[in-house]
Design a protein that fits this description.
Elements lengths: L1 E5 L2 E4 L4 E8 L2 E12 L6 E7 L4 E3 L7 E6 L4 E6 L8 E11 L6 E4 L3 E6 L1
Parallel strand pairs: 2-11
Antiparallel strand pairs: 1-3, 3-8, 4-5, 4-9, 5-6, 7-8, 9-10, 9-11
């Protein structure tokens, strides 16, 4: 199983970016997909999560600005980021809890990360 992100980049404060993530491989079921971020010198934090049933949750700092959505048929998740602030600058990682067809139990997979830089 692989998890691959795309869509990071450099944007001015107040701008928007959309991140995409797709899981591929011998997947039986994806239970949830999420976005984490890690800024320099800080711990990795959960930004948003969406379950296969469509339930979502967000860290307080992005509520009203970021929207997570998913496409179960494509095993994909998206993060629409609006009104970006310099403090949103971080490496964003996609995370997924997946049961693959060769496994005994589900496990978490991580993407390689994509840099988001917001200039002031």
């Amino acid at each position: 199983v692989q998890v691959v992100e795309s869509g990071g980049g450099l944007v001015q404060a107040g701008g928007s970016l959309t991140l995409s993530c797709a899981a591929s491989g011998n997947i039986y079921e994806v239970y949830f997909m999420a976005w984490y971020r890690q800024a320099p010198g800080k711990q990795r934090e959960l930004v948003a999560r969406i379950t296969s049933g469509g339930s979502t949750n967000y860290v307080d700092s992005v509520k009203g600005r970021f929207t997570i959505s998913g496409d179960n048929a494509k095993n994909s998740v998206y993060l629409q980021m609006n009104s970006l602030k310099p403090e949103d600058t971080a490496v964003y990682y996609c995370n997924a809890l997946i049961f693959d067809r060769t496994a005994i139990a589900s496990q978490e997979y991580w993407g390689q990360g994509t840099q988001v830089t917001v200039s002031s």
